[in-house]
Write a structure and sequence with these properties.
mainly alpha, three-stranded mixed beta sheet, Formate dehydrogenase/DMSO reductase fold
Amino acid sequence: MIAAFVRGLVLLSLASAIGGLVLGLLFPASAAPDLDVARARLRRWVPTCLLILLLATWAELLVRTQAMSGASLGASVAAVPSVVTGTHFGQILAARAMALMVALLLSSERAGAFRAFVLLVVVGIALSLSLTGHAADWGDVTLAVAVDWAHAVAASAWTGGLIALALVAGQRGAPWSRESLAAVVPRFSRLAGLSLLAVVVTGSYTAWTQLGGVSRLWTTMYGRVLIAKLLIVAVLVWLGAVNRYAHLPRLAPSQAAPGVGARAFRMARLAAFGRSRGTPSAPAESRLVAYVTGEALVGLAVFACTAVLSEVTPGRHVTFERKTTTHVAPVARPGTGGSRAGTVTPPRGDAERGRTVFARLECASCHAVPDQSFSPPTRPGPDLAGIGARHPGELVESIMNPNAQILDGPGYTDERGLSTMPDYSDRLTVGELSDLVEYLRSFEATAAPPATEQPAREQ
């Protein structure tokens, strides 16, 4: 929960900074007093967002360090330098922090060239989110990372721009004139339309790669959260369509014939709500600003769903489609022992690096271990004390194919009889797997493991 909250704060502050910078570039060169006030507000808003993003970055680093070390919050602070220098995640966040400090120093400058440069820096900072998220499971220089980056930038320009527009145009003390709204809002509306197109294309690709199958939309937590996000985005798109095709024409009438989008909107509104009963009595300016504010609030819910998705295991890792072949009892039968025929022996790894992998995968949330630095498990799973007495090849099998043999126990299987342990076959390199096995082998002398050598029953 804390990790999702921190990630959400990172997403929101980044999008708000990008949106504020983009909105400022859309302002006309006129010297209208209300636009001058808006520019001044944006010059304060963007540095505030960048400062929050910097603080949230350090909070994210601390939360991840605590997860890796399994130590208390105070002890995790001392481990931060090791995470920064010794892990990919720490190095990415350190680079993000340095880029943020550069952007902060230049964000208050009035010159357009400086603000354009700051926008480029912040767009580069958005890449750090892709490099520390699910998209980076395939590597740093991959299509998945590039698509996720484009998705983040397009979504930030759209939703972050809405937040900034609601902030500067919806102030009661200094409302925008009709002329200023007519000059800025159509430009932003066109940008929002292009951003929406980019979000749909990149989001579809990301959903396809992360889900791994249509059925995982409703059979996995990742898919269900994604459905909730899509429904909220649909509401956001509808509010934007009302503003673009109903309120904006009243604000800045055009002689051009209605386009395809306008005709599609009218048909959808007619089908959903019936024929309109006249022109609204409220001024177009106030209705437009009210809808922009509503869009910004709905956008906050989108960020909340995105933050949860970043902390939920992607649906593609739920790869079990059939019943298991064997189940095993938690107690060894008399006279059994040794490894099964055909068991391979992996190369020796590094136990300390394996401990880091163990922490990153959050294995201690289900498994009790003799390592006292890890907190007690909060979900059901076998005790790993003494597991090192097993053949290392069996440890490899249990990690890469949890359904090969399943230990009988409460909560160890789902309603289909499949292991509740995730499949890590596409999440670990060979080196990480060897290191993790070496760490598990260090538990050999602590206690006798629950044996899994002989099947108790055949499925």
